[in-house]
Design a protein that fits this description.
By secondary structure, the protein is an alpha+beta fold. The protein is built from 15 helices and seven strands. α3 crosses α6 and α13 packs across α15.
């Protein structure tokens, strides 16, 4: 419908059958949310650099007019582009205020304990962490608590939870259809929350220790065969034949070539690439481990990036934009689902995008290429495999091993080209 006009703001109503409708202004993520109660509120939508969606409420209309809303939306969009998170900052400020004004009575039930744990984890205030937890980690913990822990323990008094209670809950969980990894994850959340109770001196010992993660999990060891690699690459090279969007196919292909995490590849930006030096600098604000990671780019990787930049909606800084906005990265979950559909079409069983990293690492350290495990761990941005006392070498070693990583990734690209007969 184009940009909003002042004369239409008071006449807008929710779409038929909806209780509320968001009307976009067309720039900087500004929308006017209109509810069936005739309430009108300005919001600014944006994504953080690590791909999380945010909504920043500006206030009601007409108290805030269109011109002022646009001006504030530009400020918020600019802040988000710099890597700030205005909505997250506001939420942390509110939580800090809530912590400061919290009543003196300590939590009694596990539900109350979980809420206190969340506040502390978001603020990085509790004794078990020196910094706030990542939003996606907390989102998973919240989901597991609400769906699998709260029904059993939410109303229970903290001091009354016993090891026998936890064992009975785990027995029930084992027939719920969850995977062993998910069940162990639920147990880990309960253990964390009860550990917080110990650290805040609400209980003397954690009853979940030793019983909360009893399910055997199978470590993924899927390594793609040469034939499977060739078929996947051929399919990604002609996305129209597999009904896949070109940007999604190029994103998956770049993840294969660079051996980087899919979330980081989905969020890659032009401003992060030194084209002359052929290096991609993934900022610590977005990467797992919160530290800068330099990725040498092979000629094949640069070709994929160049092709992505020629797509119709990729003229901005984001190389793989999502459908909704050219300044927001493609959703990693959508790319993962596309890969799963591709595996079904190719009849390749039990394969995920992460298997590309494992396959590349296995082949690079094998007899054919013979790279040391240490170098491959640097390519993959793993903290382990540093040799000896890893934490000591990590403190003193600021060499990013760019030359060694470049050799490994160039050889990996050459292998893929040979497999695909390019």
């Amino acid at each position: 419908m184009g940009r909003l006009k002042p004369q239409q703001l008071s006449r807008l109503a929710p779409a038929r059958g909806q209780t509320r409708t968001d009307y976009p202004d067309g720039e900087n993520g500004l929308v006017l949310r209109v509810s069936d109660t005739q309430r009108r509120v300005w919001l600014v939508r944006y994504r953080t650099l690590d791909g999380h969606r945010r909504g920043f409420p500006l206030g009601p209309y007409p108290a805030i007019g269109l011109s002022e809303a646009r001006s504030r939306a530009r400020e918020i969009a600019a802040a988000a582009a710099r890597g700030d998170d205005p909505a997250g900052k506001r939420q942390r400020q509110r939580e800090d205020a809530k912590l400061a004004q919290a009543p003196g009575a300590p939590p009694r039930t596990l539900d109350e304990l979980f809420e206190a744990y969340l506040l502390a984890a978001r603020a990085g205030r509790h004794k078990m962490r020196a910094r706030p937890k990542r939003p996606n980690s907390l989102a998973l913990e919240i989901s597991r608590w609400r769906n699998h822990i709260r029904p059993w323990f939410g109303k229970r008094l903290i001091a009354e939870v016993t090891r026998s209670d936890i064992r009975r809950w785990l027995d029930a969980l084992s027939s719920s259809g969850l995977s062993p990894a998910a069940m162990n994850g639920c147990g880990a959340v309960l253990r964390l929350v009860l550990s917080y109770a110990v650290h805040t001196e609400l209980i003397d010992a954690n009853p979940a220790f030793g019983v909360a993660t009893p399910f055997e999990t199978q470590s993924r060891d899927r390594v793609l065969s040469r034939n499977e690699l060739a078929r996947i690459w051929e399919a990604l090279s002609s996305p129209q034949s597999i009904a896949m969007e070109a940007s999604t196919a190029l994103c998956l292909a770049l993840a294969m070539v660079t051996l980087q995490r899919l979330n980081d590849v989905c969020s890659i930006r032009v401003s992060e690439i030194d084209f002359e030096g052929r290096v991609w600098a993934i900022p610590g604000s977005r990467i797992k481990g919160a530290r800068l990671h330099l990725v040498p780019l092979s000629a094949l990787a640069l070709d994929l990036i160049a092709r992505a930049r020629l797509l119709p909606n990729a003229e901005g800084d984001v190389i793989f934009p999502g459908r909704a906005s050219p300044d927001r990265p493609i959703d990693r979950r959508a790319v993962t689902r596309a890969y799963s559909r591709l595996m079904e079409k190719l009849e390749i069983a039990n394969a995920s995008p992460h298997d590309n990293r494992r396959t590349g690492a296995t082949l690079l350290t094998g007899e054919g290429m013979g790279y040391p495990r240490f170098v491959v761990s640097k390519v993959l941005d793993h903290k382990s495999d540093t040799g000896g006392a890893a934490w000591i070498t990590g403190v003193y070693d600021r060499n990013d091993y760019l030359r060694e990583k470049r050799g490994a990734l160039d050889d990996w690209a050459a292998y893929l080209k040979k497999v695909a007969r390019l």
